[in-house]
Amino acid sequence: MDYTTTVLTGFVALYIFMLATFTGFEIIGRVPAILHTPLMSGSNFIHGIVVVGALWALLNATSVPEQIIGFVGVLLGAGNAAGGYVVTERMLQMFKPSNKSNKE
Amino acid sequence: MNAALLIDASYFIAAFLFIYGLKRMSSPLTARSGIVVAGAGMVLAVLASFLYTLDVSPAARPQLTTNLVLAVIALALGLGWAWRSGKKVAMTEMPQMVALYNGMGGGAAAAIAAIELIGYKTHGSVSLTLAVLGGVIGAVSLSGSLIAWAKLDGRINSTLRFSGLQAVNGSLLLLLLALGAYIVWHSGQVAMPVFAVFFALALLYGVMMTMPIGGADMPVVISLYNAFTGLAVGFEGYVLNNPALMIAGMVVGSAGSLLTLLMAKAMNRSVANVLFSNFGAASDDAQGEISGSQKPIDAADAGINMHYATKVIIAPGYGLAVAQAQHKLYELVKLLQDAGVEVKFAIHPVAGRMPGHMNVLLAEAGVPYDIIYDMEDINDEFKEADVAIVIGANDTVNPAARTNKSSPIYGMPVLNVDLAKQVYVVKRGQGKGYSGVENALFYADNTQMVYGDAQKVMVAMIQAIKSLGGGH
Question: Does the CB of B203 have a partner CB in chain A at under 8 Å?
Answer without folding.
Answer: no
